[in-house]
Amino acid sequence: MGKDVIVACDFSSKEETLSFLDRFDEEKPFVKIGMELFYAEGPEIVREIKKRGHRIFLDLKLHDIPNTVMKAMAVLSRLDVDMCNLHAAGTIPMMEAALRGLTRADGSRPILIAVTQLTSTDQEHMQKDLWIDRPIDEVVMHYAQNAKTAGLDGVVCSPLEAGKVHEACGSGFLTVTPGVRFADGDVGDQKRVATPALAKQIGSDYIVVGRPITAAQDPVAAYRRCLNEFCG
Ligand code: C5P
């Protein structure tokens, strides 16, 4: 498992997404489909992109009671996605139920990773709104360990945290890391960024790259540059 570039297809329609993917005639990138596209186009968009030979990370971040999450995950598993995710805040029983739902009759299942604390949540809001008083770094690491205890495969985190997650949860525990920018690229709204080469050095297993590829003059060249820096 691991060491690949996942392209975040943050488009709002099927047409835009497929015309973007049409540019790739040699490679079949691993793609991330988020809530916007999934809610706009439904499960058919997943089937269509799978049919074209891409692997899919379906980024829907489930968080509900264990029984509901288990049943929803069974649906995603039947859609044959390759990776999906949930909020570790749903607790260990919810994460265990998710795994049960995902596991197919033959024992296979998509990779399941957890979101710890969203990067949009800071210490202040975690304390004021959620009444969690511990330092946010400790909370992130604790949630990662809970995900590991529940049997999940890894977490979403910053590339800068990948080393610490591997120290706490083992080197086989996957780190899937957004917040990637080229050294000469636009940072945009991301705050704590790393280049693909630095992400590789710190030990990310998968980098999730959106605008540096989707908004590039030549997306295929930008994708290849990511592959070279990260996997080469
Ligand atoms: O365009 P960009 O490379 O910033 O896209 C990163 C992708 O990763 C987006 O789909 C964004 O929603 C997602 N993401 C993130 N930070 C997180 C979790 C997900 O940027 N902590």
Structure description:
With 232 residues, the chain is of the alpha/beta class. It has one domain: Aldolase class I (TIM Barrel, Alpha-Beta Barrel), CATH 3.20.20. It has 11 helices and 8 strands. The chain has an 8-stranded parallel barrel, surrounded by 6 helices. β3 (56-62), α4 and β4 form a beta-alpha-beta unit. α5 (92-102) crosses α7 (136-150) and α7 (136-150) crosses α8 (162-169). The relative contact order is 0.14. Cytidine-5'-monophosphate is lined by residues 8, 10, 34, 119, 156, 178-179, 190, 208-212. Cytidine-5'-monophosphate binds next to β8 and α10.
| Architecture per CATH nomenclature, i.e. the level-2 architecture | Alpha-Beta Barrel
The first-level CATH class name:
Alpha Beta
Mean pLDDT: 96
Strand order of the largest sheet: 1-2-3-4-5-6-7-8
CATH superfamily: Aldolase class I
Helix content: 40-55%
The structural domain count equals 1
Continuous helix count: 11
> Which structural class do you get from the secondary structure elements?
alpha/beta
Catalogue the ligands. cytidine-5'-monophosphate
- Low-confidence runs of at least 5 consecutive residues: none
* Biggest β-sheet description: 8 strands, parallel, barrel
What proportion strand? 15-25%
Fold-level CATH name: TIM Barrel
Number of strands: 8
Q: What general outline do the C-alpha atoms trace?
A: globular
List keywords for this structure.
232 residues; alpha/beta; TIM Barrel; 8-stranded parallel β-barrel; 45% helix; 16% strand; binds cytidine-5'-monophosphate
In short:
The chain has 232 residues and is of the alpha/beta class. Helices cover 45% and strands 16% of the residues.
